[in-house]
Amino acid sequence: MRGQQTHVQYNDINWSVLRKLVPYLLRYPRRLALSLALLIAAKIASVGLPFILKHIVDALDAGDAGLDEVLLVPLGLLVAYGLVRLANVLFAELRDTVFGRVTEHAMHDIALRVFKHLHALDLSFHLERKTGGLARDIERGTTGISFLLRFMVFNIVPTLIEIIMVIVILSGRYSVWFGVIVFAAIVLYIIWSVFATEIRTRYVREMNEADSSTNSRAIDSLLNYETVKYFGNEDYEARRYDVNLDEWEAARRKNRLSIFALNGGQAFVISVSMSAAMILAAYEVSRGAMTLGDFVLINAFMMQIFLPLNFLGFVYREMKGALANIEKMFSLLSITPNVKDTHSHTPLHVSEGTLQFKQVSFSYSPERPILKALNFDVAGGKKVALVGSSGSGKSTLAKLLFRFYDCDTGGIYIDGHNIQDVSLHSLRAQLGFVPQDAVLFNDTIEANIRYGKLDASEEDICAAIRHAKLEDFIHSLPEGRQTIVGERGLKLSGGEKQRIAIARTMLKNPPILIFDEATSSLDNDSEAHILQAIDTLSEGKTCLVIAHRLSTIKDADWILVLENGQLVEQGSHDALLEEGGRYATLWQYQHRTKDNTTPIR
């Protein structure tokens, strides 16, 4: 099916995601080098602290020393201990501060790339997407990047290095059994953490999916607030939301229990290892092989190892979830659009504005053909109307002209140029579109009009407002052009939104215009104003008008009648009425329905 996307399965974590992050880090080599230097300085200070503490305790324990030596030596060592601990903290903080800029730049670059890529994807992707879930996927992905870059790169690897240094020091300076205890504890800790985390990761995915589903359900319901109210389905929406919340709650409960099992096992390993090391150290002191200061040193090193080891477990657990979130965000970048723009495409320059549809066939899916070998021409500067029953392919032609989709066979030509051979940007710059349901940004009226031409002058904006018959309406508003229109323009009526859309297209001033049933949902008074604005906008331009109300296209230079994706009639309004075919039948039906005053039973 056209536009169907492949969804990535996250049964296994894709470690190649880490390689995708490396280029974003290497863009800032100086900051990386400085962060590494600060990291090394912090670790040197960290390893030196237990030795200073040992000498302090031994000095205080020296019972036969003189009073001055007992007071002065520990005092100097205590000052050194404080300075080294301060240096350790400052170096670590400076490292995080310096590397923080790298993290923020990387998040910025990746988020911008994803945003641009989403705008480059096909219309089919955006028709199938769930906006709330997509937004949460991107949010969790960027948060996961921050976690990985800040904690894994400068915490996991340094912690492992520190553990190795401590094992070497304890085994070489004291008994090899101290190294065996530390090594065994680390192996058991890692084995349990990996085993429990692999189980927990499944619950994290379930929780994220439930979270995205719940968020999508809520946003979809709120976006359709008026529809919910029209049909009185508040309880129905609440029940559906309640089901999503039940799934989310169950997933969080499983996740919480898995955290308890994981943390409990880690605490058991640490407690047993600490006890074993301290029992061995106490035994060595009792037989005179170690001093009391050595006992304190062993205790300090064990605490110093297991505190970051415990943090390492937390980092690993979160890293698994972060990698899954990042992979899901990067999977968006792996989606390739069916409609592609290459650098070899030349810019389109419209002179006459002629349109040609040659043998155009198109289907959204193989079993549902929409257009079938369609052929027709639109002369430059002429107004051509497309009419026909719903589903005949009228609106699809507009999407093909904008290259939201490409034809299955055949081609569309503007001034003799196949639109697939010109750049997308230049193609869409030559086209203007006024839809049936004008969608506006949740911004001011002026900002929505200026969107047609971002660098437009004040005179151009005023002219567009005047020609779109918006002056009286804007003057009636307390905030005038600075009035916020609401999400999707919901604070405005259909006619007001439509005139703003026309003003926006006027400001763009393209040579070719497409009107997709631009007045079908309006009352007679609004329709009259809109038709006047359309006539002003259409002067001297090639116009393709998709119409449901045939009365609005009587003055068209040429009328094309579509049925089931094929051209069945064409001609002027009067000629088609005289012909007595499909167009005449539609015309008579609409006027008979309009004039019929018999109540519908």
Strand proportion: 5-15%
**How many beta-strand runs?**
10
The helix-strand sequence is HHHHHHHHHEEEHEEHEHHHHEHEEEHH
Report how far apart the termini are: 41 Å
Mean pLDDT: 81
The SS-based structural class is alpha/beta
* Rg: 36 Å
CATH classification, class level of the largest domain: Mainly Alpha
Give the CA-based shape.
Answer: elongated
Low-confidence stretches: 1-11, 596-601
Kindly report the CATH topology of the largest domain. ABC transporter transmembrane region fold
CATH superfamily of the largest domain: ABC transporter type 1, transmembrane domain
Total of DSSP H or I helical runs spanning 4+ residues = 18
Total domain units: 3
Helix amount = 55-70%
How would you summarize the topology of this molecule?
Layout lengths: L15 H10 L3 H33 L5 H54 L2 H6 L2 H43 L2 H48 L1 H6 L3 H53 L5 H43 L20 E11 L2 E11 L4 E6 L5 H8 L7 E6 L2 E2 L5 H6 L1 E4 L10 H6 L7 H10 L3 H5 L18 H15 L3 E5 L7 H15 L3 E5 L11 E6 L2 E6 L1 H7 L2 H14 L6
Parallel strand pairs: 3-8, 3-9, 6-7, 7-8
Antiparallel strand pairs: 1-2, 1-4, 4-5, 9-10
Helix pairs in contact: 2-3, 2-5, 2-9, 3-5, 3-9, 5-6, 5-9, 6-8, 6-9, 8-9, 13-15, 15-16, 17-18
